[in-house]
Structures are given as structure tokens and as C-alpha cells.
Amino acid sequence: MTVPDLQRYKRDKKKVIVVTAYDALFARILEEAGIEAILVGDSLGVVVQGRPNTLSVTMEDMLYHTRLVAGAAQKALVIGDMPFMSYQAAREDALRNAGRLLQAGAHAVKLEGGAAILDRVDAMTRVGIPVIGHLGMTPQSVHQYGGYKVQGKGKDQARALLADAKALEEAGAVAMVLEAIPAPLARTITEQVSIPTIGIGAGPHCDGQVLVLYDLLGLFDDFVPKFVKPYAHLKADALQALRRYKEEVEQGKFPGESESYH
Ligand code: KIV
Q1: Nearest CA owner, ligand 1 atom 8
Q2: 46 & 152 share domain
Q3: Active-site residue identified among 32, 112, 179, 191
Q4: In terms of domains, do 65 and 134 share one?
Q5: Which residue out of 20, 40, 151, 227 has the highest number of ligand 1 atoms within 8 Å of its CB and is therefore the one to mutate?
Q6: Ligand 1: distance of its center to the CA of 257 in Å?
Q7: What pLDDT, in 10s, does the model give residues 2-16?
């Protein structure tokens, strides 16, 4: 998948399916499963680094994981997430850091926010860096919300979100993530912008969907939002496997004949 394909998918009403990955192994598994777009999300702060939120993720972290994923992915569109404070303080920082993510192998960058970051989106677009916006419950603003809460519920908030979506499109964004907003609002935004909307907790009417890999696989259960559907229960499988391994070593059953050299 390429950046121009995103527009084609919207035109052809073909869903854009995105999953996060943070390493080469899972990037390969995602591609084998036919996933065409991989987001190296700053969610790695929570699911890989074990932090309570994404705020402590650094550019160095994102560059490292983007390199791992981009180095393994053969065909997928690789999206590099811009971490907190890599684009908020100054436009020059934003441009430079977005460029570094592309140098690490990303094909596009994602950043959170609407009106406040339009000049960044415009500047990146002008120099050929494809930008994916992120509106709604933007996790880097978690403290402003007082927790991970659904956004865009009242009329004023909904109007502001729709305006942000249109402004992002006008500034040159090639797609946008809509996170944790009411499904009817996501539908309205999807109908009123010409770039694809990629939903997470934004209902079924978006042009595509994204999920955090470890949520989708049932590996991460510290906090499971309503919008997550675990398609597997890998944490339970891992626990069972590890307990069996421990038991078999303790009982002298492993290694057996077939795992021993003679
Ligand atoms: O960091 C991330 O994984 C994300 C998705 C939840 C959209 O931003």
C-alpha cells in the first residue's frame, strides 16, 4: 500500500485496515495476514514499555521501533507516530522529527490534534512528508481530559471536531484517525471529508479501522477499552505454555529424548 492508495481506497469504498506493530517479527506476521498498513504507534509506551500513558515516549524510541518495523515490512504502508513534544513546541522541530521518521523507513507520519497543529501539517505536506491526522480522544492530551474519555459528545464539541477534520484535510493530511468519538459523528466526518477516516472506537462508518496489536491479540489486559475486540487470547495461551514448561522442567519431563543430542 502506498499513500496515494489511501485516496483510491476511499473512492472505491475499500476499507483501510491498520494494525500497530513495534518489531520485525510482528511486522512480518501482519503482512502474512494481509494487513496493508502498519502503525508504529506511540502506544508502545504503554504496551511495550509498561508506562501508564504515552507521554514519556521519545523520538529515539519511535525511531528505533520504526526502523525495526520498516526493515521487515515488504509491502505495507508504514506509519510512524510522532511522540509527545516532538511537534508541539515549534514547527521546525516538527518538520525535522517528521523527516527523521521517514529516514527511519516510515512512509507517513501521524500526529495528534486539530487547529493547533495545522501549520505543521501544511509545512510537512509542502516538503513531501505525508501526514495522517488524529482527532477525538488523543492520548497525548490524557491529562487535559482527566482520563481516557469519549470526546465529541456535546453539540459544540462535535462541531469543533468536524471543523478540525475539514481543516486537517485542507492543510494537506492524507488520512485521519478518529479515536473514541460517537459513531454518528464519525459517520458525518467520514461523509464530509474526502480523505479516509480510520476509526478506533469511532463506530463502523469510518473508511478504515485501526487496533493496537496487543489488544487485538488479547495479550494486554491491564486496561481494555470498550472498543477493543480481542480476536485471540494470547496472554492466556502464554500463561498456560509457561506454566507447563515450568512444571515439565521441575518434573524432569523436559528436555526429553527428542530434545536431547546423542
Ligand atoms: O499509538 C497508537 O497506537 C495509536 C492508535 C491507537 C491509533 O495512536
Answers
A1: 41
A2: yes
A3: 179
A4: yes
A5: 20
A6: 46
A7: 999 999 999 999 999
Residue whose CA is at the smallest distance from ligand 1 atom 1: 41
- Measured distance between the N- and C-terminal CA atoms of the chain, rounded to whole angstroms: 50
Residues 126 and 13 in one domain: yes
Amino acid at 255: P
For the full predicted model, state whether its pTM sits above 0.85: yes
| Furthest CA-CA distance within the chain | 74
Ligand 1 atom nearest residue 42's Cα: 1
Q: What single letter denotes the amino acid at residue 121?
A: V
Range of the domain at 156: 3-231
- Strands (E) located in 12-170: 16-20, 37-40, 77-81, 108-110, 131-136
All three cell numbers of 217? 491479540
Query: Who's near 261: CB < 8 A, 6+ residues apart?
Result: none
Pocket around ligand 1 at a 6 A CB cut-off: 20, 39, 41-43, 81, 177, 179, 200, 210, 212
Find the 15 Cα to ligand 1 centroid distance in Å: 18
Q: Give the model confidence (pLDDT) of 201-224 as tens digits.
A: 999 999 999 999 999 999 999 888
259 carries an active-site annotation: no
Residue at grid coordinates 515488504: 74
Question: Which of 179, 214, 228 gets mutated to test ligand 1 (max ligand atoms within 8 A of its CB)?
Answer: 179
206 by DSSP, 3-state: which? coil
- Do 180 and 243 share a domain, yes or no? no
- Are 214 and 248 found together in one domain? no
